[in-house]
Amino acid sequence: MNYKWSDFVVRYPISGKRVILKSFLTGAVTVMTRKLLSNVDKWLQNKCATEIKSEIKNILFGENDFIVSVERDEFAEYRDSFLDTRNNHAKLFSFYFLPTMQCQLKCPYCFENGIKRMGKMSGEVLDKSIGWIIQYLKTNTEVKSFRCILFGGEPMLEKKLVIDALSRISSVVKTAGVEFWTEIITNGDLLDPSIASVLRQHDCRKVQITLDGPKEIHDTRRRGRNNYVSFDRIIANVKMLLDGHFIERVNLRLSLDRETADSIPSLIEYITKLGYGNRIQLSLGIVVPSLNAQTEEISEKYIAKKAIKAWKVARDLGHELPDEFLLGPWCVAIAKHSAVLQPNGSLQKCFCTVGRSEFDFSSVFQTPKSYSRDGRFELFERIDECVEEKCPYLPVCGGGCIHDSVVKHGLTGFSRRLCQKELTKQINMGLVLLKYGTRGDS
Fold first, then answer.
1. What is the mean pLDDT of residues 208-223?
2. Element (H, E) at 21
3. What whole-number distance in Å separates Cα of residue 321 and Cα of residue 313?
4. N or C: more exposed end of the chain, with fewer CB within 10 A?
5. Contact yes or no for 343/118 (Cβ under 8 A)
6. In this predicted model, what pLDDT tens digit does every residue of 356-398 receive, in sequence order?
7. Can you say how many angstroms the Cα of residue 335 is from the centroid of all Cα atoms in its chain?
8. In the prediction, which pLDDT does 80 show?
9. d(CA 375, CA 372)
10. Contact predicate 271/282, CB 8 Å
11. How far apart are the C-alpha atoms of 225 and 105, rounded to whole Å?
């Protein structure tokens, strides 16, 4: 049988006459000398009489899939596997619960700017939501896990409603024999030990809080009424969550745009000095234009350069780095079982479109008869060009974010890819070198 390098393998030469190989399909990474790599190349081309050692074969073949049969159409396999997993093996329901769309802060880049923000969810909508969930789980018995993500606006503006909703939702989900846990996306300003205790009772696995830079920048951008500032209060609440062991880790999402990019390293240094180590998980949130906020577009090379600089600082200070930079292959909006519940009871697939009724696909006032389907998010032919180009980054890109494509192309964006190959290539290369190269290589 003849073999070839997988189409999803990318090579990264580093110092010391070594090369890092990364498969963006399997996620496998290995390092070998350039001489050994050359011998493998020759062996694959039938130009080397020496057989490759079995231990090398064990690394390059099998589940790592660095080397595959020449007969394999890997991109057809990827597409078939993706669709099969998405359509036939979906067991998780991701349910975004928005008790309100009001917020005490006024972030200039918020994708909910310019819309008529709905107020508190009514008791009738909550009642209907409980009934809708019960029926959904009866209709979709393949669902084995239920992830309830608190979102807004700012969900902590309606703590009593959140407490009531979590109690009722968890009860009906567990009664159906389905695993239940919670997450929360919050600005972090209104958290307190009482609500943190409630979240812990409902198996809260993730708290995500956004920071827009060090105090002087964050407090300029994320202000409330009467010039209300939030940085110190947010940091105090992060400490409260961790010191009280209400959650094992807090995710701090650091906004990256032209205004904040150069200050992110100093923010990471500040966070490190808090002394919580990897109990604080860092992520970068690239600020991009949305349907309601036309923020400045900056080049992919600029974003990649600043992101890698930030991750290098994080690595040097002992923080964990992500394995890969993902753009949208497993976005919640294209998941089979996912829904964003707005305060008025309407349902959407993407949390970036909330407040715009043209993106509603149903409501809790309608009995679910199948899975939470919005066909606009199932136009998977949008990756055809990626397949034709045999782009090795397809498994971590997935054709790019659908929301961002709609922002750029209008409604035709649902069926069009948003290629950001340079961004994907540069950030992933930087992460690979930071994680697996020597400090001099990066």
1. 95
2. strand 18-23
3. 10
4. N
5. yes
6. 999 999 999 999 999 999 999 999 999 999 999 999 999 999 9
7. 13
8. 95
9. 10
10. yes
11. 7
